[in-house]
Design a protein that fits this description.
4 helices; 66% helix; 82 residues; mainly alpha; single chain
Length: 82
Amino acid sequence: MTSSYDFPDDLLHAQRAWYTAYRRLAQEENPSQTTVLRRTLQRLSVRIATHPYWATIPGRAPAARMALKQQTWAPDAEETRR
């Protein structure tokens, strides 16, 4: 899927990292590790939500947020090898 948005690399990386942490949390059984993963998700959520990019597209941010999620949803090759 191609996006009409030109997302900065750091925003794409943060959203991919969020999905990676989310998938790991869903499979994790160690309670101490789930705490670490939940904190990681919280940090990444703040980084994504407050990224300066959203201010550059006023009025289009909700659609752009969905496009970002769709663009980064599929696991990357490095993640699937773990």
